[in-house]
Amino acid sequence: MMQNVHLAPETDEDDLYSGYNDYNPTYDTEELENDTAFQQAVRTSHGRRPPITAKIPSTAVTRPVATGYGSKTSLASSMGRPMTGAIQDGVTRPMTAVRGSWFYQSSFESPEEKIRQLEKKVNELVEESCIANSCGDLKLALEKAKDAGRKERILVRQREQVTTPENINLDLTYSVLLNLASQYSANEMYAEALTTFQVIVKNKMFSNAGRLKVNMGNIYLKQRNYSKAIKFYRMALDQIPSVHKEMRIKIMQNIGVTFIKTGQYSDAINSFEHIMSMAPNLKAGFNLILSYFAVGDRDKMKKAFQKLIAVPLEIDEDDKYISPSDDPHTNLVIEAIKNDRLRQMERERCVEVVKASQYVELANDLEINKAITYLRQKDFNQAVETLKMFEKKDSRVKSAAATNLSFLYYLENEFAQASSYADLAVNSDRYNPSALTNKGNTVFANGDYEKAAEFYKEALRNDSSCTEALYNIGLTYKRLNRLDEALDCFLKLHTILRNSAQVLYQIANVYELMEDPHQAIEWLMQLISVVPTDSRALSKLGELYDSEGDKSQAFQYYYESYRYFPSNIEVIEWLGAYYIDTQFCEKAIQYFERASLIQPTQVKWQLMVASCFRRSGNYQKALDTYKDIHRKFPENVECLRFLVRLCTDIGLKEVQEYATKLKRLEKMKEIREQRIKSGRDGSEGPRSRREGSASSDSGQNCSASSKGERLSAKLRALPGTNEPYESSSNKEIDASYVDPLGPQIERPKTAAKKRIDEDDFADEELGDDLLPE
């Protein structure tokens, strides 16, 4: 049978359509009757197949076993098939499986299915080639393109054998060839790219293939073969219909650039003049000016420049000098031109023309908008200078400019200047709600809340929709402890701004101050539905549930808060204390280790890690941790105290060394305290001692209310008498550390996320918009 199979000859990869006319008689069904090998196979393997019986006969006896000691002989099976591994016609057949399952499965696969699989593979290779090119791997892209070309040729041959030529997928062939040519060009293999493009262009079956002559012109341009580049550009231009105006303009632009490179400026001028008359653009206008400069025609240069500046930029005027990206070159160019002489002349003439017209009010608005543009560019000095020009203008413009100046100075915490310009704005226009709001802000910053409330009320009387004044008056009532009135303000604001996170937080905070935790929790739940990743709001929910005794819910929200912001010391401390309280000291370790990373100079977090190891029974790890702490903090008494006890229990020789150090440190501490006490007794009289005692009590009260000391004071251990390695008296523990027991801590009230913190709104949201009323 093999005598009728003809192998395809090796062909050059670049000859894309070689081998199309090769004939493979394997698939010729008309000559099967004369094929002796096929007829023999039918008679032996199919025609004489034995009938199927219920009992499978054993073949162990009938098949001889070949050994390495004797010659191998083959016996025909009952079906006439030579035995696997036997010698037939002097050729040894390789060993195979008992059943030729793959052979039979592949034999029954239809040709159409093979074609579909091969077509899918070709498409995948083309896609992989394009992806590799976009990633910058040009070599891999070319290899994939070549592989796609080889498989596509095989696909065409197989399709011709099973179907008519009309059913060949020309789109796939076109895409394979175009991708191959593009990859050749990208790899600077210009000869191969041109050959492949020629194959596409000369094939009449490909519609619109003439457009690819533009690609060929580009290649000739890269090779500096300018005459051929122009020739192919013009051939492409002839084959593109006039409806494709944009493409024709781009080709004309390429022709003009090529003429410039050849020094044919007159022809280049004709091309660019045509473009500027049909579809003017910046590049063509600029090249036209250069061409006129090359021929020395100044008058036409001026006309070309007028055409150039008449081309619309298609960007907003305010954003023209704002960098759209982080490209340093672009930023340098914008920085150079945003205040050059041309830009200054442009601004001056624009404003002068408007001022000389009947639209004088428009000129004032333009100046204010110019100041706002400076603010967008973060050029605050220029914005202030521009707004100060309106101090001597009429009352309406003066009020608008003074309002914005007051706002700017307020943001910079220059409250005296902010108050001065707020007064100017109010005096110029008493009915300007923005000016009244800013004046209230400056009074609020000075602590005069009653007077600030009056300004906010007046702003609301002038404009009931001024949400800034309504929000700020709510904050003012809260500072005055008029919680019912504050709640009314925020509830009214909530009806206007339904999904404002700031308003939702303030309502929850007021309910918390009114000692209504259930309502506070309900409003905080609405808050996290608006900002679900706000770690401060989540920690506040955990704090409220903790105060209500619901530890499981508190843990859920504290853990969510930690997940979104794992650097909040208060949340980390609560979670660590929670695990200690629930007897899961091993889980508490990771939280205290993170706390020690955040505050590496605070020894208490590292002592808590060691304490967790000790409580979980891992005394060796605890000992190593205490030793590491001692190396970092050699004067920490508490660490030495635990080292002495652990070494004593384990029986280490180092116990004497640590005991000596501990005794020396305690002696030094005692001497230091005696000196301080004797110094106070010798320098203060009875009256001063009484005052000192009073001030000391006052200072203790203040410090007890502070956040840090309340947390440390509650993190103390209260172990039972049977627990080892605990100090016998809490008075002996060093002030820098108290061994933690659990989360039963009176925790400080944490605000929500910084952007919804009450004090932040007093500084930020109290300000009004930059746009004048």
UniProtKB/TrEMBL annotation:
Keywords: Cell projection, Cilium, Cilium biogenesis/degradation, Cytoplasm, Cytoskeleton, Flagellum, Repeat, TPR repeat. It is found in: Cell projection, Cilium, Flagellum; Cytoplasm, Cytoskeleton, Cilium basal body; Cytoplasm, Cytoskeleton, Microtubule organizing center, Centrosome, Centriole. One of its GO terms (cellular component) is ciliary tip. SMART domains: TPR. The keyword Zinc-finger does not apply. Residues 693-706 have a biased composition (Polar residues). This is Intraflagellar transport protein 88 homolog. It comes from Canis lupus familiaris (Dog). The lineage of its organism: Eukaryota, Metazoa, Chordata, Craniata, Vertebrata.
